[in-house]
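hiii so my PI (J.) wants the whole complex modelled not just the main chain, which honestly fair. so below is everything: three entries, each one labled with what it is. i double checked the lines twice but i was tired so who knows lol
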Amino acid sequence: MEVSRHWRLRTQRYSLVGEICPNCGVKLFPPRDVCLECEAPAKELFTFTGLGEVYSYTTIYDAPAGFERYVPYTVALVKLAEGPLVTAQLTDVAAEDVQMGMPVEMVTRKLTEDGPEGMIVYGYKFRPISLTA
Amino acid sequence: MNDTQNSLMKTDKPVGIVGYGAYVPRFRLPASEVSKMWTGGTGGVPIQEKAVNGLDEDVVSMSIEAARNALNRAEIDPQLIRAVWVGSESHPYAVKPTSTIVAEAIGAVPHTQAADWEFACKAGTEAMQAAIGFVGSGMARYALSIGMDTAQGRPGDALEYTAAAGGAAILIGSAAEAVAIIEASYSFVTDTPDFWRRAHAQYPSHGDRFTGEPAYFKHIMGAAEALLTGLERTAADYQWAIFHQPNAKFPERAAEMLGFSKAQIQPGLLSPRIGNTYAGSAVIGLTATLDIAQPGDLILMVSYGSGAGSDAFSFRVTDHILAVRDRAPKTEEYITRRQLIDYATYTRYRDKLKMA
Amino acid sequence: MTNVSIIGIGQTEVREHWDTSLRHLAWYAIEAALDDAITTDIDAIYVGNMLAGSLSRQDHLGALIADFAGMRGREAITVEAADASGAAALRQAVLAIQSGLVQTALVVGVEKMTDQTGSAIGHALATTLDQDYEAVQGATPAALAALMMRRYLHTYGLQLADFAGFSINAHRNAAHNPYALFRHPLPPERFAAGTLVAAPVTLFDQAPLADGAAAVIVTHSERAMDMSPHPVRIAGSALATDTLALHDRRDILWLAAAAESAQKAMRHAGITPAGIHLFELHDAYTILAALSLEACGFAPPGQGWQLARDGQIGLDGRIPISTFGGLKARGHAGGATGVYQIVELARQLRGEAGECQVPGARVGLAQSLGGSGGTAVTHVLTIDNFQPPFSAQADRF
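here's the output for the full assembly
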């Protein structure tokens, strides 16, 4: 049963907490401690707004264990407003309605569960921005 | 106790609602689908349609979105919240709080209280009642109460037409920052077994017509009349009222018995369009009403939870409502954002298919 | 710098070997390679494998296979780099021989996919992704390929059908390969009706996973002539990495590790893409075939697909690929795939490819990718007496 590996990522999963490089200013998600661009140490935390747009997407019909009950589901590369790409499911949208460049916002949803008796894993997904304010 | 005026629940420090947020998932199951499945389409239906949570939604995820809406309206530092209380009868874990997950997600941890509440359909207002006391006693600057459910209804049962998903988050703080000041509240409970779910049962059981007169109406009237008497008010003093809404008929009749018009309960009467959201039912009626209320309006809210009891609240809307209202999606937006599903899809989304 | 040559090759059929265990599969390939070479004197064994720990609950393959192959006591380890494990194992063998500490090395790639069924295989494959930030979102290898493909189609205004040529070519070539999983042709109309796996990727864009093992024996080139009638030289060898997660790439349509390792390997061999006669590339997905052609310098970015459209990837084309069916039709045997590519290139350069023969093939390129391109291993193979057009640069091998 997996417990600590999900728990330790809760701030990333719930709140999109990444990092900002103090050297070149690039914003990093997922956090990686060494800047992807300039390879300087980057440990300063940065919370992303959760706004972005669809950079690419796919609808999955053949799912690995833990995801069968969600088929078909859509996984996207979301380009966050602050720069980085993030791999995340799209939710609250039918596969045929997804468009490249579609504006999306972060929501917190159930990602998977560790079997019927294990931990429920919650984390970020993105959905089209349709509600106001 | 006969001296209801002195028994009104009032805080030492004036408190109010400083932020509020609703959540309704986007799927809708028309009641006609249930009727078609179980009565060949011959039976009458209690509502038009009910809200159904998607595969990746539960009380945790729904509470998080409602809480974020409440925080966006209040514009406060979540670290100042000293209690996160979630009332539901659909907590995803039997043991492990929903509230700690919600508190973590909104950034309220670690210097906070967190707990899950359970009292059938009034678990949400029970949490709210406690939050009022927490802030009103000076123990906390802000306390977040949530009523949220993904309600269970046994296939073919009368409750399957209405048992729905949704709810709201109500952030309690000082009256000075409030969008609605809490004038007083009143709680009324007895041991009345009208509806229950045993510890490991999948679906609730209920007493059919026993849920009406000796249960819903007795407690709603008991709490509402005591509150109104204590405040020396009548229905005519209020612009709006919300009664727990297991269907459309019960709250309409309760309103009538207390002298409220259909117009007064109309903004908060959501059950015909989203169903009975159980612990969310009264509070989401409140958020819908706050979305349209004007400064100075008085609002009465009376919840009902089986087992049984009611919490009644009297609110006075402040000028601040106008500044705050548009900072998060309104209840109505969630209701109109809808995707119809059929009964087959519903059984899949609600895990009613036997897979093993 | 020591030159390294291949003196023995062996392979099993790629298929569902229900009655054959992982260790037997490996042994059958080793046995064939030992028969092919004129030696049984092996100093070290490098096992390429991707998923045995997950699918067969068997790790520690070095000792297992050395023992089972009757080579108890010999130095033996497993090399893991997702789908590129087999090629990475060869890379380790090359380094070992060049170090001078190992005379003759056996490389065996083996994968046993059918010890598990259903979604367990997908679950195991997802271990090649970033678990914390890709797999947890339900992403799969096919999903990452689909994300690249959708972006490619969008960027260059293409359709799925524009990729049909890759799969059709692979099936056409596999028809003549007795070791191939799919030996039937793939008509264009069938490609167009492919079942969606991860839209837009269909079953016909995706290489089928199956069991298989392939082995090669390598030694110093100076000794090779005594140990094989037709040694094949490893004229270039390089391994490079990119970000594990697709979302961390500067450009998701540029396989940086593939480009880096190809450039290094070709520079070492003293050759450019113009001098390559055939290319066994990593066509786990049609999009990866197009992107590999671009990364390795056979087409500018955005134009790799045109080589398939224009018939340039056939056996008589400008740059033949998947000459025995590639991953798509020979079948993708996970960590064995990179060794299959080497075996097939060797057969081409030895002139033993039969109906699959690329006429006059003297220089071949093999490239194996791990995951979505996080690892790329490139080898340049030549006939033993090949003189490169440029001076080989062996300073940083």
